[in-house]
Amino acid sequence: MMKVLVITGGIGSGKSMVCGILKDKYGIPVYKADKRAKELYAEVPLLIESMEKALEVSLRNECGDFSPGMLAEVIFNDQEALRLVEDMLFPVIKADFALWAEKYTDEEVVAFESATVLEKQQFNGFGDVVLLVNAPFALRLSRALERDKVDEGKVLSRMACQPLMNRLSDGESDDRIDYVIQNDASASDLGEKLREFIEKYTLTKML
User: Which residue, 159, 82, 89, 158, is CA-closest to 123?
Assistant: First the structure.
């Protein structure tokens, strides 16, 4: 029976690198939930319509196309609006993931990558094994700044939206996490730590 490996971690932790290694070296298909969510807004017109109705605001630009920036402005610092959006978006993501996973029924393991999966109650109990990719807050910040080439304030604002990930970076534990990889050294070190995870955890407890 196919197992779902959940990969999570804060901004700049190295989730994308881990997913790349899992896919390229170990042949594990990866569903990138955060990236896919942005695509679903365009692919599921009724999703935007439902959000506009619930929020009582237009989320489209002058050309009539969905504007992610307008949505971001609406839900920024408005927890009720954010809850309404997530209550509509997350079931669509789950359904899309289930449809995607049907293409890999012959695989032993598929991965679901999301930065916020542990932050959201709608995903409580989701997946079979949870892998946290972690790094100190300062290191995550410097990586994000180098990668995105944006103002530090913008990165800090985004990181502030991941309170659990920040607490985990500071040493807090979470019983929902099955395995932690500290990505605080080189790419080769990360690869070795992931190999240890695959050998000691994935292959013995998932496959």
Answer: 89
Residue entry with tokens 């502030």: 160
Helices (H) and strands (E) in the chain, counts: 9, 5
Which pair of tokens denotes residue 96? 């899309």
The string of pLDDT tens digits covering residues 86-123 is 999 999 999 999 999 999 999 989 999 999 899 999 99
Query: What mean pLDDT is predicted for residues 139-148?
Result: 93
Q: Cα(62)–Cα(199) distance, rounded to whole angstroms?
A: 53
- Give the tokens for residue 97: 């993931």
Residue 5 near residue 206 (C-beta atoms within 8 A): yes
pLDDT given for residue 98 in this prediction: 96
Q: What secondary structure letter does DSSP report for 60? A: B
- CA–CA dist 57, 112 (Å, integer): 32
| Greatest C-alpha distance within the chain | 54
Segment 163-197, tens digit of pLDDT: 999 999 999 999 999 999 999 999 999 999 999 99
DSSP 109-142: EEEEE-SSTTT-GGGTT-SSEEEEEE--HHHHHH
* Average pLDDT value over all residues in the chain: 90
